[in-house]
Each structure stands twice: as structure tokens, then as C-alpha cells.
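Appendix B, record 7
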Amino acid sequence: MLIQSSHKKSSQSPQSKTTNNSSYIEHFSTFSKPRLAKIVKSLVDYVAQVPRTERLQIDLSEYLIEWCIKEKRTYLKNRIELKLAALYLEVGEPSVSIKIIDPILIEVRKADDKLLLV
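C-alpha cells (predicted):
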């Protein structure tokens, strides 16, 4: 599904591509958790390749975080929240970025996830 949407006409705006891709997430329950995590990360990376789409990436990340909370995918949520914090720093909103990072730091310390702490 993602492959098909990534090869659509290049005349589409990045916003419409992301809207199309994010609507597929509701149908991903058939994939295993690791496979789905890889697909979601690829989706975020795909959108990040398009120049000047920081606001779009923020919207997509917030949508994916809500989805991760609903689906109870904590590890993936933490990864996307870190990318969201980096986006807010890039956009010039460091206070929002710090508000996102603080709870992640506490949660990661509890889980003792050394790779995510670094």
C-alpha cells in the first residue's frame, strides 16, 4: 500500500500524499508489531525527504503518536515523539520540544532503554 502511494504522480502535493498514507494506518492490524513499526518509521522518513514540510511532518507525527497510544505501542510512540521534538527544534519552538522530551526521558529511564537514552 505504501509502495503504491509513494509512486503516484509527482504532481500531488506532499499534504495529499501524507493524508493518503495516514489513512492506511487504520488497516495495518494485519501486520506484526515489528513489521508495522518499520512501515511507520519508513512513512515518517518518506515525508521527511520532502523539503519544507516541517509542519506537515509535525501533524503526521502527532497523528501517529495518538494512534500509538490507542494501539498501546509505547516503544514506537517514544521514537516518534523524539522525532517530533527534533522537528519542533528545527521549526524554532524549543519550549515545546522540551515539554515532549521530559516525559519520554522519565519513561525511558523506567524501562531502562539504553539505546533510546543515547
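Remarks on this record: The first helix runs from residue 2 to 6. The chain has seven helices and no strands.
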